């Protein structure tokens, strides 16, 4: 594969220069791609609302309700590699458009699923939404990491990922406002409605509440797909400079990637991090309902508070990466999250819930930093390497129902939070190993640099 290569510019002292994190000549395309981070952030945290809404509407237990997360994040595992192969053949732009259209199809399927009124069609729709998100993450994360000077890849990806928390906040708020009805029947009222034959209609009405939000999201995503389809992308990221066509990858990519300890450890860390993040958020409303007198809406606002903490963490932490090693930062943050989750386990109630809320602040930079460190120096193997890291999002499919199983077996939802705490142990181990894993791979490593067309 013929690509433009560059080394990070260095100052006279031998250290990295103050390179810009933004690409030259492609700011509109960069910003449109960055907007995608907002969209999938909104979708991912709408699912936290769906877990509680479907538990109520379909009368599910905790493990069954968490299948919402399993459907979405299993799709990440299934679709990441096909997405990478799609982009190796047709480029990043095609990957983004296909991902957006797939995502929109899944959201629009909520309408017929609600009319049918059964749980399985919703899980199928969510799997399609997750498939679209998987394609988008496989495309957008490595694209942004390469979309400029290699010396600033971590900061650039953290900048774009900073648009993800506002999306998660918007998703949680929209779900709280438009999906939660605020009507919670007590056992006597439920028995009375069942005797009158009105309870099934009430539950179906609760199911229908998910439709407007998801259909509106689907329409917005289709519009974004049109803009992305018309945008101009840097030719050098995907094409041969000599032919102007999508370049053929070198053979043996899978073997090279599997033998790359920096990438493989990043994949493991990402699996455990995403599992910890998703299980923490998706079980938070259950935790609040179990140990505090909060209603669904109040718990939804509390969940939103945790997402605000994530956004603040991203705003505060990203600039600090000029002065603190990104790997050291996520290692320290992982240790702090282990301690905070310990408080949530030992002191169930508002104190424990507040501690769990603050873990979101320290989650803030983990995903993009692990991703950027994992693909650093992969060159024309970046698309496939990125797909490995997206496949690691499978942790989000496994951890939530597993946390529910631990809670059921122990009789304590708080004790279930031992699982995300264990996830952060792996993240911490990875973070402190990064200097050894990436020795010889740094800002000077050969990477693709966008060139003007």
CATH class: Mainly Alpha
Summed over residues and divided by their number, the pLDDT gives a mean of 86
Give, in order, the helices and strands: EHHHHHHHHHHHHHHHHHHHHHHE
Query: What's the number of structural domains?
Result: 1
The end-to-end distance, rounded to whole angstroms, is 18 Å
Strand content: under 5%
Strand segment tally:
2
The residue ranges in which pLDDT falls below 50 over 5 or more consecutive positions are 1-17, 240-245, 441-453
Radius of gyration: 22 Å
Largest sheet: 2 strands, antiparallel
What strand line-up does the widest sheet have? 1-2
Question: SS-based structural class?
Answer: mainly alpha
* CATH-defined superfamily: MFS general substrate transporter like domains
Say what the CATH topology is. Answer: Growth Hormone, Chain: A
The helicity comes to: over 70%
**CATH architecture tag:** Up-down Bundle
* Number of helical regions: 22
Could you explain how this protein is built, in words?
The chain has helices spanning 27-57, 62-65, 67-90, 92-108, 110-116, 119-146, 153-161, 164-179, 187-196, 199-208, 211-230, 235-238, 253-258, 261-282, 284-291, 296-320, 326-346, 350-363, 366-375, 382-391, 395-410, 418-437; strands at residues 5-6, 447-448. It is globular, with a radius of gyration of 22 Å. The chain has 22 helices and 2 strands. It has a two-stranded antiparallel sheet with strand order 1-2. It has a single domain (24-441), classed as MFS general substrate transporter like domains (Growth Hormone, Chain: A). The two termini are 18 Å apart.
